[in-house]
Design brief:
32% of the residues lie in helices and 41% in strands. The protein is of the alpha+beta class and 473 residues long. The radius of gyration is 37 Å and the shape is flat.
Length: 473
C-alpha cells in the first residue's frame, strides 16, 4: 500500500509540469497554448513512452506512463531501476512491489459496501422487531394520527394565509399615510428637477401611521401569538414603547432636511440632514455629488458623511467606466483605495492601498505578468517573463520586514523530446528539474497476466453486524 501511495504522489508532480505548460490565464504574450496537448500527440506509442522525471543532483526518479488498450500503467523508477508498478484496467487495480503482485477488484469494494449496507439494514430490522407488540400503535391509532396531522397542517396553512393577509393590510394602511404627494415638494423644468422632503408633514404622517398600526387588533393577535411561540415582546410592550418615545421620534423627524436635485446633463446632488445644532446635540449630514453619463457608461460619485460644519467622518468615492474603476473610502487619517482596469469582462490589472492613521498598512499591485504585495511583516512579489534564451521564467520573491529574502525561480522550456520545469531556490545550489519526456519504450509487464496474483479481499463478515449495532444503538 505504501508503494501505491508513493506512485500516486509522484503523479501529483505531473500536474506541476502540466500546469507550467498549460495555457495560462492573463499571461499576455507569455501564453503557450496547447503545448502539452501537442507534446502528447507527437508521441509514437509504438516506440515511445511518456515519463515524468525528477532530477536533483545525481539522483533521478521517474514515473513512466503508458496507455495500452484498456490498461493504464504507472511505473515508478529510481535511477532507471523499477521501484513499483501500478496497473489499472476494467477489472481493478494491480500493484507490483518487491516481486509481489496484488489485485484489488472494483467488485470487491462494491461487495464490501453492500455488506456494510446489509449489516445496517439488518441491525435496524432487529431494533424494530425488539419493540414489544403492545408498544406498537394500532392501525386505528395510526389512521387517527394521520388525520390529526392533516387537520393540523391544514389549520397551520390557513393561519399562515391569514397572517400574510393581516401583514399585507397593515403595510398598505401604513404606506397610504406616507404618500409622496403628502410629504414631498417637487419643482422642475425641462432641464432639471428638485425633490424636497417636508419634515413637519412627514412627522404628522408618521404619527398617524404608527398610531393606527398600534391600534390594529388583528396585528396585535398575530404579534402576541408569535411572542408566545418565540419568546419575543408582546403587542402591549410595543405599544408602551411607542407611547414612551413618540414625541422624541417625531421631534427628530421634524428636523429632517432632504433634497434631491437632478439635471438633464447627468448631474445629481443629494443632501440629507437630521438633528438640531445645540449644546446637547449636533446635525448629522450625508451629501452625495454624482455625474452619470449613461451614453458612455461613465460615473463619478462622491458621498460624504459627517457633522455639520466639521470635517467629514467618512468619504466614499467611486469612479467607473467600461475600461477601469476606482473606489476609495477615507476616514480621518485612514483610507483604502482600490483601482482596477479591465480587458473586456476580465480584470487586467489593479492596485490596492490601505493606510491606517497615516501609516501604510498594505500595498498591492498586479498585472498580467506580475504581482506585488507589501504589508507590515514583509512583502511578496511574483513575475513571469520570457528570458533571452526563450525560457518562460516564473519568479517568486519573499522578503521579511528585516530585509531577509527567499527566492524561488521556475524556468519552463522545451528541450528536444522533453518539457522541462527547472526549479532553483536561494536556499540550494542544486536545481531540481521536472521533465515530461518521451523515452524509448521500456519493458513493462502485464500484471493482469501474472501467474501468482495476491487478491486483496475485505474480511468484514465476522463482527460487522455487532459493530453496526454498537454504532447505531
Amino acid at each position: 500500500m505504501k508503494k501505491l501511495v508513493s506512485c500516486l504522489l509522484v503523479v501529483m508532480m505531473l500536474f506541476t509540469v502540466a500546469g507550467a505548460f498549460a495555457e495560462p490565464t492573463g499571461m499576455g504574450r507569455f501564453g503557450q497554448a496547447n503545448i502539452l496537448s501537442r507534446f502528447v500527440k507527437g508521441t509514437d506509442p509504438q516506440t515511445q513512452d511518456i515519463a515524468l522525471q525528477v532530477e536533483s543532483g545525481n539522483e533521478a526518479s521517474d514515473l513512466v506512463i503508458r496507455v495500452d488498450g484498456d490498461n493504464l500503467h504507472l511505473v515508478s523508477r529510481n535511477n532507471a531501476v523499477e521501484d513499483s508498478h501500478v496497473q489499472l484496467n476494467p477489472t481493478g487495480i494491480y500493484v507490483s512491489a518487491d516481486g509481489t503482485v496484488s489485485l484489488l477488484r472494483y467488485a470487491t469494494v462494491t461487495a464490501a459496501m453492500q455488506k456494510i449496507d446489509d449489516a445496517v439494514n439488518a441491525a435496524l430490522e432487529e431494533a424494530i422487531k425488539s419493540i414489544p407488540e403492545e408498544a406498537l400503535p394500532t392501525q386505528a391509532e395510526i389512521e387517527k394520527a394521520v388525520n390529526e396531522f392533516g387537520i393540523l397542517a391544514s389549520a397551520a396553512e390557513e393561519q399562515a394565509q391569514a397572517d400574510a393577509a393581516t401583514l399585507s393590510a397593515a403595510a398598505m394602511a401604513f404606506a397610504s399615510k406616507l404618500k409622496p404627494e403628502y410629504i414631498l415638494d417637487v419643482k422642475g423644468t425641462e432641464a432639471s428637477a428638485t425633490v424636497s422632503l417636508r419634515g413637519d408633514a412627514l412627522a404628522s404622517a408618521l404619527a398617524d401611521a404608527m398610531d393606527e398600526l398600534m391600534s390594529n387588533p388583528d396585528l396585535a393577535a398575530l404579534v402576541n401569538r408569535q411572542a408566545a411561540l418565540n419568546g419575543g415582546e408582546d403587542f402591549a410592550a410595543l405599544q408602551e414603547n411607542w407611547l414612551d418615545n413618540r414625541e422624541a421620534i417625531l421631534e427628530a423627524v421634524r428636523t429632517i432636511e432632504s433634497t434631491e436635485a437632478f439635471d438633464a446633463n447627468g448631474h445629481w446632488v443629494s443632501h440629507f440632514q437630521i438633528g438640531e445644532d445645540s449644546s446637547a446635540s449636533k446635525v448629522l449630514m450625508c451629501d452625495t455629488d454624482a455625474w452619470i453619463n449613461e451614453a458612455n457608461g461613465e460615473a463619478e460619485i462622491t458621498t460624504c458623511l459627517g457633522i455639520k460644519d466639521e470635517e467629514p467622518l467618512l468619504v466614499h468615492e467611486l469612479s467607473v467606466n467600461p475600461n477601469s474603476s476606482r473606489e476609495a473610502l477615507s476616514a480621518g487619517n485612514s483610507k483604502t483605495d482600490v483601482q482596477l482596469s479591465f480587458d473586456g469582462e476580465q480584470i487586467d490589472a489593479g492596485s490596492v492601498l490601505s493606510v491606517i492613521e497615516d501609516s501604510e498598512w498594505m500595498r498591492m499591485n498586479f498585472g498580467p505578468d506580475y504581482f506585488f504585495m507589501k504589508g507590515p511583516k514583509g512583502a511578496i512579489s511574483t513575475s513571469v517573463r520570457e528570458t533571452w534564451t526563450g525560457k518562460i521564467r516564473y519568479e517568486v520573491v519573499a522578503e521579511t520586514a528585516d530585509g531577509q529574502q527567499a527566492t524561488v525561480i521556475f524556468d519552463c522550456y522545451e528541450d528536444d523530446d522533453s518539457l522541462v520545469c527547472e526549479m532553483n531556490t536561494s536556499e540550494s545550489d542544486q536545481p531540481v528539474r521536472f521533465k515530461l519526456s518521451r523515452i524509448d519504450r521500456v519493458n513493462i509487464e502485464d500484471l493482469s497476466a501474472s501467474k501468482n496474483v495476491n487478491e486483496i479481499t475485505f474480511e468484514i463478515d465476522g463482527d460487522l453486524e455487532d459493530l453496526v449495532k454498537t454504532i447505531l444503538m
